[in-house]
Amino acid sequence: MNADVMKNGRATWPDVIREEFDANQLNGRVGTRLLSETNRVRVWEIRLAPGERIGFHRHVLNYFWTAVTPGRAQSHAEDGSIVEAVYSAGETRHFVYGKGEYKIHDLKNVGDADLWFTTVEFLDSTNAPLELGHEARDMASSQRSLPPNT
């Protein structure tokens, strides 16, 4: 991953971005779709067409992501920085959080092709998992109940 970081502070973010950040402090939906959940892991997919973004969410669990496709993205981070990154297909990054540690950010596809990641969160991390709500779990349950090859 090649990244450029601009540290301008949250005051320079557009109002709509600052308001969304404030409203999503405890959003545990770290992907666009929960693919699977067991008593050990949550497996997420992030698929973003050019110009699409996933809103602010909080990472509290140890996790890793793998870029399925190459692409470019922009992310607003809690410290006010804006990160622009270039990803390679197959690139993988691992993250570990200590007690009370977390990261809040969004992700926007600023490239010209679909951007696709798989993220795996480990539920036995130091911090307790954030609640997702029934919608995300219902989607993951329906995916598990599909017959093979569908």
Summary?
InterPro entries: RmlC-like_jellyroll, RmlC_Cupin_sf. The chain has one domain: Jelly Rolls.
CATH top level class name: Mainly Beta
Query: N-to-C SSE series?
Result: EHEEEEEEEEEH
The value of Rg in angstroms is 15 Å
Total beta-strand segments? 10
Give the helix tally.
Answer: 2
CATH superfamily: Jelly Rolls
CATH architecture assignment name: Sandwich
User: What's the N-to-C terminus distance?
Assistant: 33 Å
> Which spans have pLDDT < 50 for at least 5 consecutive residues?
141-150
Structural class: mainly beta
Percentage of residues in strands:
35-45%
Protein name: Cupin domain-containing protein
InterPro entries: RmlC-like_jellyroll, RmlC_Cupin_sf
Task: Give a structural overview.
The chain has helices at 15-23, 134-144; strands spanning 2-7, 33-37, 41-48, 53-59, 63-67, 71-76, 81-87, 92-95, 103-109, 115-122. With 150 residues, it is mainly β. It starts with a strand and ends in a 6-residue tail after the last helix. It has a single domain, classed as Jelly Rolls (Sandwich). The radius of gyration is 15 Å and the shape is globular. The strands form two sheets. It has a five-stranded antiparallel beta sheet with strand order 1-7-6-9-4, with no helix packed on it. The chain has a five-stranded antiparallel beta sheet with strand order 2-3-10-5-8. It comes from Bradyrhizobium uaiense. This is Cupin domain-containing protein. InterPro entries: RmlC-like_jellyroll (IPR014710), RmlC_Cupin_sf (IPR011051).
